[in-house]
Amino acid sequence: MTAQDVEEAVEASATGAPTGRISVASRGHRALIALLLIGNTAVIAVYMGAGILLALQAAQISPNGKVAALGTVTGVAALVATLAQPIVGALSDRGGRRGPWILGGALAGFGLLSVLADLRTVLLLTVGWCAVSAALNAYQVAVSSVIPDRIPEGLRGTASGFVGLGIPLGAFLGPWLAARAAPVSLRTGYLLLGGLVAFAALLLTSLARERRMPGGRSAGLGGQLASLGSALRGRDFRWAFTGRALITLGYFSVSGFQLYIVQDHTVLPANLSPTEAVAVLSPVGAVAMAASTSLGGVLSDRTGRRRPFVTAAAIVSAGAALLPVLSDSWGAMLVFTALNGLGFGCFMAVDLSIVTLVLPSTSDAARDLGVLNMAQAGPQIVSPLIGSLAVSVLGGYTGLFMVAGAVAALGSLAMLPIRGVR
């Protein structure tokens, strides 16, 4: 299929998604899903790859306080992202278009990433990463909103599953690029990651043409901003928010310190450096996550059931956290990474389809998804703090894994009360 074919196919889906129980994807929907997969892969690659670069940079700035420094940088930036997402979502709904936010957020992120390597204090690095996070979250919430805008309800699980493949693909691609660029320079790594998301945004906005959604300016901006929390009044949406927050907290409490874990906790083979170990773990987690993401989304559509998948996925993630507690071996870390990838990938894919089906208002999809994404960005505020406290108070990284497992278990319980989906 040529670029022109893709553009024509996607154009067919530009008028919005019907709400019927459609189960067969049209050519236009398939092309749109492929473009969204590329867009999601790119932004996840930036987050995961930059996590390694930020860890290296924090260690250069503060060798003896690297855990606290990294926690400060990523935690404060997550706060900014949490506040930015629903506001940007409301602005996107008001304008009735996603493209300008996708392209603008990506290009701004690229420009900001290009100067990140020059920042030499924890304060400046925190400010810089906050700016990058705000720009990329504007991009991300707009990309996420295309699913409820233009994908039929009967295809939401399949679409969410395939778009969710961006998580494992990005989780592999980002660290892989960062691990190979870091020996050259941090700047090279940041430029590669920024260029990746800029290219994805150009591809998505040029091929996935959209029409302005009707009623995009029906509510005043002040009214939209004032109603940011209205989505949480919905019972099902509130439980979905809670479950995602807990699962995300458990996942990022560990993944945010992955480089330090393999440095200071895991007994590595003699010929394997910590950065090389991260480069090995990334594809292991990516393959496991890719398998569970795609299968979970498709099977949830075929069975018409969502809750059993997300509950089981959360339980798998919780159980996986016990392995590094019982053993500090390299083998235990590999198995943990695979199981954690299986659980987290399936959860995020099916959870996204659940959310699109329990949105309080389809006309405010971006705003409400921005509120939901606070459940993903918000835990990243506290996960570095929880991680550093667990390491210092609970006796090292063993305590960190115990906390992560307990939080994931609570996340599985939070999905049970949702009534709007089976």
From TrEMBL:
It is a multi-pass membrane protein. The chain crosses the membrane at residues 31-56, 68-88, 100-117, 123-147, 159-178, 190-208, 241-262, 277-297, 309-327, 333-359, 371-391, 397-418. Coiled coil: none annotated. The keyword Zinc-finger does not apply. Keywords: Membrane, Transmembrane, Transmembrane helix. Residues 31-422 form the Major facilitator superfamily (MFS) profile domain. The keyword Transmembrane helix applies. GO terms for molecular function: transmembrane transporter activity. SUPFAM superfamilies: MFS general substrate transporter. It is found in: Cell membrane. It holds the Pfam family MFS_1. GO terms for cellular component: plasma membrane. PANTHER family: MAJOR FACILITATOR SUPERFAMILY (MFS) PROFILE DOMAIN-CONTAINING PROTEIN, PTHR23528. This is MFS transporter.
